[in-house]
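Deviation from plan, reported transparently: S-adenosylmethionine complex.
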Amino acid sequence: MKRGETITVTVERFGAEGKSVARVEGFVVFVRSGVPGDTVAVRLTRVSKNFAEADIVSVVTPSPLRTTPQCAYFGVCGGCTWQHLSYEGQCAFKRQQVVDALERIGGFPEIPVHPTIGSGHVYHYRNKMEFSFGVRWLTKEELEHVTAEGGTGAEADRFALGLHIPQRFDRVLDITECHLQSPTSAAIVNAVRAFCREHELSIYSTVTHTGYLRNLVIRESATGERMVNLVTSEERPVILAEFSACILSRFADTTTIVNNITTRKSQVALGDREVVLHGPGWITDRIGERTYRISANSFFQTNTRQAERLYDVVRRYAAIRRHEVVYDLYSGTGTISLHVADDAAEVIGIESVASAVEDARRNAESNEIHNCRFVLGDLKDRLADGGALPDGAPEADVVICDPPRAGMHPDVIGALRSMHPSRIVYVSCNPATQARDLKMLCDGGDFRLIEAQPVDMFPHTTHVENVALLVSGRNS
Ligand SMILES: C[S@@+](CC[C@H](N)C(=O)[O-])C[C@H]1O[C@@H](n2cnc3c(N)ncnc32)[C@H](O)[C@@H]1O
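Because the crystal trials were delayed, the predicted structure below was used instead.
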């Protein structure tokens, strides 16, 4: 097998991270955008000792799971890599990712993994989109056109507002539509692009660290509120007053407009300083019976309706009794704590980001919930060394944990084993690290893994959220 060679393969399955796997005499070929069941002619783009990578040249026989992507940018944009796969197929393969991780990494071959809970809305489900200003990525067709005219592409108009090209953080796909947020959001992107171009505003460069425009972040709540947040490298009051007036003249139902200013060199759309241009500077959203105040830099689950379903699974698995104390580890802005608070005697949330802890406390107050307290700190320090928990903190009956993708630190797992709650509900956005942690929790017989429930928070992506229930092994 050689790079550049064209061969015909049948895609067998999705592997880790949703990569499509085919085999040629046992040798693995990863086929970009292949669907299990496809027979495709592919061109090998990379051949290494253990595997090859390939791009589809033509689909010889399509898989019955193939469907037509709705988005014009499918295949170029890094956003929705599974739009060519039926939604039933997506849910089935997400479940399979969990099954595979539990079996291969966790060593749990016989745990019931329920069918994925699908998202009610498979388009327009995101409440937040972060667009970037940058140098426009020229598509294959555009490049061909430019070179046919005798150019190199360098002279083409390169102002872009859109989404980053996968693995090319220096290039932005200029998008005029995106089906992940509302059609109004796409219209705002187009209006902002036109405004910035008309005023000849410059784009911030992460190479030279010069220029003005960095990101446009749009948040829309299930309660009908909208925030437009322009992230820039400096404050320019005159142009921003015009910007605000332009947005309000076209999108009068925008409830707040803010300008976040940052001189950070990294590409994070967070401001060090914020100027409120219109409205209160925050919007409110609702998960279940609770309402939340969300500022430009607050973390909030991006699929609001599906977050409620996820939290309902957590609540069901936790099966909290009135007298029980719950620890919500990695509590963020306290949304899980508040969702289960009515069931418990007390909920203690622990979280390492100060602003998230402040948000959580404020959220508890505004929802008139008095049995939750939120502790600031790194869980490794808070729990692992016998714990620097608040004075008189009671022992946990139930622990809910929702760590970041990397999973839990081994010391936190050790601490959980010593704390020995009667139930642990483990929420994760990474089945591989979750399976690793579950194995560590169950080794030695302290806990038993009972079941797992995948939930799809991000249709058309390969990401899956999984909730696992562990019970104390000592009671068995
Ligand atoms: C996946 S989010 C979960 C947030 C929340 N449970 C929710 O549903 O919105 C993970 C959270 O863990 C926090 N975190 C990460 N590492 C931590 C650590 N070592 N100690 C405490 N919190 C941590 C992050 O700041 C983040 O808020």
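The mean pLDDT is 92. We consider this an acceptable substitute for the interim report.
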